[in-house]
């Protein structure tokens, strides 16, 4: 692998918020050295940055790379090869927007992760969970009321699999772990894009949730839970869930529980804005579109509450269909209630902590994987430097210009 030298950049340490002028030398896929006046080894490629800002590669901790439509109920009828072709296109766009690693929150599998790792498709490094676990009639059950048959075969392109009862959820979790899941996703409450549940419902019994957590922990993995309300979030945290996805309707007592359990919250505010304005255009059913208002306005207040209370936050977007192009807009939305540095940490070092890759991702320190993004301007004073993809000059993944 040819070494890469990025010369004369402005390097941001996302942990301290401090800038340093200097170069970044990438060799064998990792950051070999940083500092002023570095010497490029023989045969290295050199890129002049002229003072542009260098950040760690961005991490989106809640994506659905196979969700090429907002009509999630239609996905199981798609050919797996057709869904994979769409996923390749979606992943390529994510890399162009500066996201060098993503955590897929259901839908992607070992095939897509292997294809990306082997260079067969272009896109971010993919941390997948396979299919999300859902109770009958839960957020991962995409069947309309009159449909009885459900095909849960692994090759179906849907996002969820149905499992009811302690024994069944153990078997389902073990099956996803058998296929290489980096984490297990569970639907612990109602959702927008599901046809037969209420957003304010709780889903899965406490015994079922604990069984799923036990299986993940036995494999040295963790559980992420879809949940909106304080009640559903609290049940999931008490069961040992490590990350809560969305959490738009949490309250002050929930914030205290997050801190007590050292758990993460992954808000996904941009998706509600996108679903409200464009969702129906990209396939969101009318019944789901009408649910969006229940969580749209509350999300920003929940984020502000969590930030103020010291909750560990990671960056997520949860976009569907043609709305994936808004991925960077989450930076702008969060900056309404958080300092820019906090938002950047959520998409770098904090997200790396959630993924169990502290020191490997989300940092410019020597020894880390050489995932970098070079932007025009100072994102600490102007968040549009990362919120506007047109201001991204270079993306480096594993030491190679993407």
TrEMBL record:
SUPFAM superfamilies: Composite domain of metallo-dependent hydrolases, Metallo-dependent hydrolases
Alphabetical list of Pfam families matching this protein: Amidohydro_1
UniProt enzyme class: hydrolase
EC number: 3.5.-.-
UniProt keyword annotations, A-Z: Hydrolase
Alphabetized GO MF terms: hydrolase activity, acting on carbon-nitrogen (but not peptide) bonds
InterPro entries assigned: Amidohydro-rel (IPR006680), Metal-dep_hydrolase_composite (IPR011059), Metal_Hydrolase (IPR032466), Metallo-dep_Hydrolase (IPR051781), OTAase-like (IPR057744)
Protein name: Peptidase, M38 family
Annotated source species: Saccharopolyspora erythraea (strain ATCC 11635 / DSM 40517 / JCM 4748 / NBRC 13426 / NCIMB 8594 / NRRL 2338)
